[in-house]
């Protein structure tokens, strides 16, 4: 059997697909090669489907249980971030105001996540969103607009329905009590 370039590439893709289930360290290693910067090595749960992009900047003490960043927009994640399973960040949108119908090209927008943010499982964050410090996003939410500092939001579209107790939050932060 002659190993052509196409077959070699297919075998390499198969190997990489299998490695993430065989070697949990592979997921961390692959993501650290790709991302732009990090303050400390993130924790990536073994066997999670975590895929960061080359324009991702991570703070300290970030924990991922399955976050996928689609497209090449910039993503900045603050310190003490925690994600649930199957989180999706979308940093690109179709340019429907372009030169052709239904669209022509793409528009890239940054996603900014503040310190001490927790995003619940199966949430989607759309392009151009900023989630403020200490915010919590309820599982299954679709975030279509900015979430303020200390906001607890959920739904489709996600809306702030409550705020964290600011005094309690600031006390824990001052004492350095981070998960």
List keywords for this structure.
UDP N-Acetylglucosamine Acyltransferase, domain 1, globular, five-stranded parallel beta sheet, alpha/beta
Name of the CATH homologous superfamily: Hexapeptide repeat proteins
Strand arrangement, major sheet: 1-3-6-11-14
- Order of helical and strand elements: HHEEEEEEEEEEEEEEEEEEH
What gross morphology would you assign? globular
User: What name does CATH use for the topology?
Assistant: UDP N-Acetylglucosamine Acyltransferase, domain 1
Outline of the structure:
This protein is α/β, with parallel strands linked by helices and 179 residues long. The chain is built from three helices and 18 strands. It is globular and about 70 Å long.
Describe the protein.
The chain has 179 residues and is of the alpha/beta class. The protein has one domain: UDP N-Acetylglucosamine Acyltransferase, domain 1 (3 Solenoid), CATH 2.160.10. Helices cover 21% and strands 29% of the residues. The chain contains 3 helices and 18 strands. The chain has helices at 5-22, 24-34, 166-174; strands at 37-38, 43-44, 56-58, 63-64, 67-70, 75-77, 82-83, 87-90, 92-94, 106-108, 111-113, 118-119, 124-125, 130-131, 136-137, 142-143, 151-155, 158-163. A hairpin with a 2-residue loop joins strand 17 and strand 18 (158-163). Helix 1 crosses helix 2. The radius of gyration is 18 Å and the shape is globular. The chain starts with a helix and ends in a 5-residue tail after the last helix.
């Amino acid at each position: 059997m002659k190993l052509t370039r196409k077959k070699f590439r297919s075998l390499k893709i198969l190997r990489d697909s299998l490695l993430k289930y065989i070697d949990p360290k592979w997921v961390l290693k692959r993501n650290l090669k790709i991302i732009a910067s990090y303050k400390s090595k993130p924790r990536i749960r073994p066997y999670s489907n975590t895929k960061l992009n080359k324009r991702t900047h991570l703070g300290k003490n970030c924990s991922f249980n399955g976050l996928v960043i689609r497209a090449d927009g910039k993503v900045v994640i603050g310190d003490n971030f925690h994600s649930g399973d199957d989180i999706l960040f979308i940093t690109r949108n179709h340019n429907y105001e372009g030169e052709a119908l239904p669209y022509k090209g793409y528009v890239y927008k940054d996603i900014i996540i503040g310190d001490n943010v927790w995003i619940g499982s199966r949430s989607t964050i759309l392009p151009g969103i900023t989630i403020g410090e200490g915010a919590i996003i309820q599982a299954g939410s679709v975030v279509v607009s900015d979430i303020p500092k200390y906001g607890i939001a959920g739904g489709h579209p996600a809306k702030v329905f409550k705020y964290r107790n600011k005094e309690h939050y600031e006390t824990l932060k001052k004492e350095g009590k981070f998960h």
